[in-house]
């Protein structure tokens, strides 16, 4: 179709560009399930959806407000310069000749390029507007270029620390990816796949589960898991030690009781033979 018109070629280029970009984003969706890069992909998603959305909402309010204020100031400066030089206002150069250009110029100022803007503002022939413009310039640099961008960095740092502190986040993302893939299949296909990778549990064969055999080694454990295992081993040793002390104490207590019972038992008297005196006579 590109041979019919150049517009089709342009459309094909735009479509190819969008396909390449969205393919990369779609590839990041599956990278969430990887242990090494999954948390970082989640950080990007969280920062884009939460932190940057809040920042751009506040930033847009400041940007639009200051841009229209500077547009009025530069329009007054252009009018004063045209009257001083005796030229039409259309022949005088104005870097903020329309509201859209003023918004773009404010955005360029935000990233640090403000020398051209300040030079044009300083050359304004309207004294009052020049002073007001300098005051607005200082306020814009303080509240937008410095404060808001530092707040954005702090928000992204907080998000990074929250996600990096979780050890099992990639497993949850892995489960979400599997769930999304299962939802994209038909119910019949999901049932066939379920019978392939699941195993019956218990006596009820209708209940099936995915069996995971994990080979645990000391090297594969994280620092938190190692500390937890060491704590469990210490608790087990302490419990065994306490149980042994209790048994030894019970045995010692039982032995003491036996000795006391032996000392307190009265000698048995035989009733078969009558007791006799010293001279051999029996006592009735």
TrEMBL record:
| Chain ranges passing through the membrane | 14-34, 55-74, 103-121, 133-156
List residues of the Ion transport domain. Answer: 21-167
> Is Coiled coil tagged as a keyword?
yes
Q: How does it sit in the membrane?
A: Multi-pass membrane protein
Name any GO cellular component annotation: plasma membrane
Q: Where is coiled-coil annotated?
A: 214-242
Q: Which UniProt keywords apply?
A: Coiled coil, Membrane, Repeat, Transmembrane, Transmembrane helix
Q: Which compartment or compartments is the protein found in?
A: Membrane
The record's InterPro entries line, in alphabetical order, gives: Ion_trans_dom, TRPV
- One of the Pfam families matching this protein, by short name: Ion_trans
* Alphabetized GO MF terms: calcium channel activity
Q: Which GO terms describe its biological process?
A: calcium ion import across plasma membrane
Q: Which domain of life is it from?
A: Eukaryota
Q: What is this protein called?
A: Ion_trans domain-containing protein
Say which species the protein is native to: Toxocara canis
